[in-house]
Amino acid sequence: MLPGPVSSGARSSPQLVDDMDGRRRRRGDAQLADDVLIAPEPIVGMLQVDAERVLSELLGSGSESSSRIEVPTNSQRRGARVVRHYLRESEGEGYWDFFKPRQGLMVSVTDASYHRDTWVRVEGDGLFKLRILLSGRLRSGSGEILAQAPETLLYVSPGASSEGYYAALDEPLRMIVLHCRPELLTRVLGLGPAEIPAPLDSLYVPGRPTSCQRLALRPGAIHAAQRILDSPHRLSPTLRHRYLETLSTEILLEVLGELQNRSLLRDKSPQLSPRDLSRVYEARDYLAQHYAHPPNIPELARLVGVNQTKLKSLFRDVLGVTIYGFIVRCRMERAAELLATGEHGIAQVAYAVGYDYPANFTAAFKRHSGQLPGSWKSSARGHEHRHR
Question: Could you tell me the pTM of the whole model?
Answer without folding.
Answer: 0.69
